[in-house]
Design goal:
single chain; mainly alpha; two-stranded antiparallel ribbon; two-stranded parallel ribbon; about 10% strand; globular
Length: about 280
């Protein structure tokens, strides 16, 4: 059973009711496991958990949820300045790190959206946040005078994400490379999307490795793609440096997983690096 002081801290997080929540009740049971606990405390415990829990991931898969007394107090922004990650030696523990420069006195903000919701436009993000977290988002991005312009960029990036696998399925490597390059160029110029840049670089690198293998058999009509293939290691190195700079284990694990997959598929035989993060 939790110590009384820790119970008080957790119950203090209960700022909402249990509406439409689907959660693991183990914490609530631990919070209310003594004879003095009543139904009201149980409701508070479940409210605290359902509105403040953070996903616990293992090798890219969600294995449960956890309640963290400090991390769970970070408010949402669609343009966050922090990111949460598990620790190297203890995957159920969490740490918060800055993902951009933060001014003195500036609030620490995280993103409550999942990876699959990364490029939703303002109306879609607000709808999702209302359904899941019961609040209308008025963050700096959603309330910006440039929200419509940002939405157009996000729609374009999302379209490029969707079309790349289609090009790959058709074995149109030049089409896939052009789409991946355009996506990188858009994200590079958009501050609120720059956290997705290392992943975009790494996918472009993946495509260019395949193109390098194809080039030896078929050649290229597109001079730009031929040039990109020659410079493919630049994009892997950019991804490596950006992932490393965050010091987030989630980012390091993602990079290493992608590199191992490329090695396993034989793509690194085209001259790619097998450099991993420690």
């Amino acid at each position: 059973m939790l110590e009384r002081e820790k119970r008080k801290k957790i119950l203090a997080l209960a700022g909402a009711t249990l509406e439409a929540a689907s959660v693991d009740a183990s914490l609530a049971l631990e919070l209310t496991s003594d004879s003095s606990s009543d139904n009201e405390e149980w409701k508070k415990a479940m409210g605290a958990f359902s509105r403040n829990c953070i996903a616990v991931n293992w090798e890219g898969k969600k294995v449960g949820s956890g309640l963290y007394i400090t991390n769970s107090r970070i408010n949402h922004s669609c343009s966050p300045n922090t990111e949460c990650s598990y620790l190297k030696d203890k995957r159920t523990s969490k740490e918060v790190r800055a993902i951009r420069n933060i001014k003195k006195g500036e609030e620490l903000l995280g993103d409550y959206m999942t990876d699959g919701e990364s490029f939703l436009i303002t109306s879609q993000r607000r709808k999702q946040l209302m359904q899941t977290w019961k609040f209308h988002c008025e963050c700096s991005l959603c309330s910006s005078d440039h929200a419509q312009e940002n939405d157009a960029l996000r729609e374009r990036v999302k379209k490029l994400y969707d079309v790349i696998p289609i090009f790959q399925a058709r074995e149109d490597i030049q089409g896939a490379a052009n789409a991946a390059l355009e996506r990188c160029n858009i994200i590079e110029k958009c501050d609120d999307m720059k956290r997705y840049l290392p992943g975009a670089y790494l996918e472009l690198y993946n495509i260019l490795l395949v193109a390098a293998m194809q080039k030896s058999y078929f050649g290229f009509d597109d001079a730009l793609i031929a040039s990109l293939v020659e410079r493919r290691e630049d994009y892997r190195e950019k991804a490596y440096e950006l992932f490393k700079r965050t010091k987030l284990m989630t980012r390091k694990d993602y990079y290493n997983k992608m590199m191992r997959q490329l090695a396993m598929l034989g793509y690194l035989a085209a001259g790619g690096s097998n450099k991993l993060m420690s």
